[in-house]
């Protein structure tokens, strides 16, 4: 077990209305007051709710995150949102390279790296997602795949910057499937990720924090969060219920 602080990130994905967000955030704020100061909560609503949720959590311990940004700071990019626009709204974190964006928007590691650099440039903390597919895992290529994603998507100096940096290990086969990776799997894989980060960044100091994500529930959170190389969790489905999300945070 470790006593360092834990980062509990809720990714709402494409869910939520002004009414549902008001209820959910209200419940989360009520419960968050009881959490120890070592637990940091981050809520990542869709772009449409960032401003509203940002106003609701103002002055609380909960921080705001976005689910993507574009690398360019402004311009003729219809439908996209730039990192400085997020910073202007009071956003602190931005999830980048989520497997759903890699899958649906064909995002590459090079694009994810450019987005991370843009985010860092305006003081946002990127949460860079990496993870192997079931096929890669079955072929015995999971570690190779993760090392390649780190080499391609993680900017130089990541983590040592004042904005910091976070890596989310999210095995694709565990996302939204109800199939959480085993504690042993998470332990060995995050140890590998730590080594790959140290090799890529050329240092053992100020390495990015490492989160696990993939069907985390209140039932398994405490066990996952007790792994020495795991600094927190990225939660999808279970972040849409205050009971589940707070139950996960209580495991930290
Ligand atoms: C995610 O998409 O980041 C995630 C972890 O989803 P879920 O918790 O629903 O598997």
From TrEMBL:
<keyword id="KW-0963">Cytoplasm</keyword>
<protein>
    <recommendedName>
        <fullName>Triosephosphate isomerase</fullName>
        <ecNumber>5.3.1.1</ecNumber>
    </recommendedName>
</protein>
<comment type="similarity">
    <text>Belongs to the triosephosphate isomerase family.</text>
</comment>
<dbReference type="GO" id="GO:0004807">
    <property type="term" value="F:triose-phosphate isomerase activity"/>
</dbReference>
<dbReference type="GO" id="GO:0006094">
    <property type="term" value="P:gluconeogenesis"/>
</dbReference>
<comment type="pathway">
    <text>Carbohydrate biosynthesis; gluconeogenesis.</text>
</comment>
<dbReference type="InterPro" id="IPR013785">
    <property type="entry name" value="Aldolase_TIM"/>
</dbReference>
<keyword id="KW-0413">Isomerase</keyword>
<dbReference type="GO" id="GO:0046166">
    <property type="term" value="P:glyceraldehyde-3-phosphate biosynthetic process"/>
</dbReference>
<dbReference type="Pfam" id="PF00121">
    <property type="entry name" value="TIM"/>
</dbReference>
<feature type="active site" description="Electrophile">
    <location>
        <position position="98"/>
    </location>
</feature>
<dbReference type="InterPro" id="IPR020861">
    <property type="entry name" value="Triosephosphate_isomerase_AS"/>
</dbReference>
<dbReference type="GO" id="GO:0019563">
    <property type="term" value="P:glycerol catabolic process"/>
</dbReference>
<feature type="binding site">
    <location>
        <position position="176"/>
    </location>
    <ligand>
        <name>substrate</name>
    </ligand>
</feature>
<keyword id="KW-0312">Gluconeogenesis</keyword>
<dbReference type="InterPro" id="IPR035990">
    <property type="entry name" value="TIM_sf"/>
</dbReference>
<feature type="binding site">
    <location>
        <begin position="236"/>
        <end position="237"/>
    </location>
    <ligand>
        <name>substrate</name>
    </ligand>
</feature>
<dbReference type="GO" id="GO:0006096">
    <property type="term" value="P:glycolytic process"/>
</dbReference>
<dbReference type="GO" id="GO:0005829">
    <property type="term" value="C:cytosol"/>
</dbReference>
<keyword id="KW-0324">Glycolysis</keyword>
<dbReference type="InterPro" id="IPR022896">
    <property type="entry name" value="TrioseP_Isoase_bac/euk"/>
</dbReference>
<dbReference type="InterPro" id="IPR000652">
    <property type="entry name" value="Triosephosphate_isomerase"/>
</dbReference>
<comment type="subunit">
    <text>Homodimer.</text>
</comment>
<feature type="binding site">
    <location>
        <position position="215"/>
    </location>
    <ligand>
        <name>substrate</name>
    </ligand>
</feature>
<feature type="active site" description="Proton acceptor">
    <location>
        <position position="170"/>
    </location>
</feature>
<feature type="binding site">
    <location>
        <begin position="11"/>
        <end position="13"/>
    </location>
    <ligand>
        <name>substrate</name>
    </ligand>
</feature>
<comment type="function">
    <text>Involved in the gluconeogenesis. Catalyzes stereospecifically the conversion of dihydroxyacetone phosphate (DHAP) to D-glyceraldehyde-3-phosphate (G3P).</text>
</comment>
<comment type="pathway">
    <text>Carbohydrate metabolism; erythritol degradation.</text>
</comment>
């Amino acid at each position: 077990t470790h006593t360092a602080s834990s980062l509990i990130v809720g990714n709402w994905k494409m869910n939520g209305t002004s009414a549902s967000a008001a209820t959910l955030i209200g419940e989360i704020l009520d419960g968050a007051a009881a959490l120890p100061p070592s637990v940091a909560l981050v809520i990542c609503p869709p772009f449409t709710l960032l401003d509203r949720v940002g106003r609701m959590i103002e002055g609380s311990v909960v921080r705001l995150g976005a689910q993507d940004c574009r690398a360019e700071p402004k311009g003729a990019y219809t439908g996209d949102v730039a990192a400085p626009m997020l910073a202007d709204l009071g956003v602190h974190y931005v999830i980048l390279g989520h497997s759903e964006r890699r899958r649906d928007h064909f995002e590459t590691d090079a694009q994810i790296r450019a987005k991370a650099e843009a985010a860092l440039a305006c003081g946002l903390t990127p949460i860079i997602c990496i993870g192997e597919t079931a096929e890669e895992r079955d072929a015995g290529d999971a570690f190779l795949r993760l090392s390649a994603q780190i080499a391609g998507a993680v900017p130089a100096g990541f983590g040592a910057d004042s904005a910091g940096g976070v890596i989310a290990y999210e095995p694709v086969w565990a996302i939204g499937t109800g199939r959480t990776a085993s504690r042993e799997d998470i332990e060995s894989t995050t140890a590998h990720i730590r080594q790959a980060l140290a090799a890529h960044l050329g240092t053992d100091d100020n390495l990015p924090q490492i989160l696990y994500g993939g069907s985390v529930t209140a039932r398994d959170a405490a066990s996952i969060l007790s792994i020495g190389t795991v600094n927190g969790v990225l939660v999808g489905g279970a972040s849409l219920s205050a009971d589940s999300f707070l139950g996960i945070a209580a495991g930290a």
